[in-house]
């Protein structure tokens, strides 16, 4: 079994994501901030476990629903929250928002609002690692809906042919916007799509961080060893609908939601760690108190930060063209 330190580290990431997301939703509900927000609630365990299998130098690409992926990879909370509420202290000086959360300092290389858009970018990052002999692996996170997009299929094909050091992680939360996934695909498991391209494809319970960590480690080791890509389908559920605060969620069956919430990965993993003797109630409560303070401080910092100066409207927006 995975060591205690790794498992506690996974829980700490999950809890940091959980509290940050909760704070974001509170600030939006209070009217303190007015931003579009795609909650990752329910999906915390996936990137928390995958990140534990990565080094600080490895890369990720993600989507508009990527706050959890970004926090799990180690992006500083103050700057992340400032970015999503449009403040000049944010990771992209408040000009990117949730659709463009990036922090190359910790390997968060690209977030795309284009469904499937981050997948070919991951191939590019992985190709660079391969060509320069860098050991870096790239993980690309995307949704079940994205696995119907052409760019996903083209990217899997290219990555398999060129044995790129990339791991494709599909966060299958059963919905694409307001459409149940079985209305937009005719295969039960996204993972089976890997076989068309000659790479391993595995379906994992994404809400079981231990299973997720094992699958991620196998895939990351394979990529790092030059053996090529893997598709991991992480089964999960989206507790807050598509866009937070706007979505009525009437199209999601009540029993389905209730069953998913009864298996909420955050309290479930906490309890498992205690039951298996990997931690104690006191130790985990102290960890949570520390993270609570960190999140509260980060929210304060972001709320007290100024918006971008209108004079900087065009700064960092266009690349400087250097004449040949
Ligand atoms: C190419 C493209 N088509 C359509 C959209 C509109 N759109 C935004 S999110 C979304 C659903 C994507 O679902 P999924 O990939 O499962 O991700 P999830 O939101 O569930 O995390 C769609 C269709 C878009 N942003 N980009
Ligand atoms: Mg989805």
From TrEMBL:
InterPro entries: DH_E1, PDH_E1_Alpha_Subunit, THDP-binding
Location of the Dehydrogenase E1 component domain: 13-310
SUPFAM superfamilies documented for this protein: Thiamin diphosphate-binding fold (THDP-binding)
Keywords: Oxidoreductase, Thiamine pyrophosphate
Required cofactor names: thiamine diphosphate
Gene3D superfamilies: 3.40.50.970
Family annotation (Pfam families): E1_dh
PANTHER family per UniProt: PYRUVATE DEHYDROGENASE E1 COMPONENT SUBUNIT ALPHA, PYRUVATE DEHYDROGENASE E1 COMPONENT, ALPHA SUBUNIT BACTERIAL AND ORGANELLAR
Name of the protein: Thiamine pyrophosphate-dependent dehydrogenase E1 component subunit alpha
Provenance organism: Pseudonocardia eucalypti
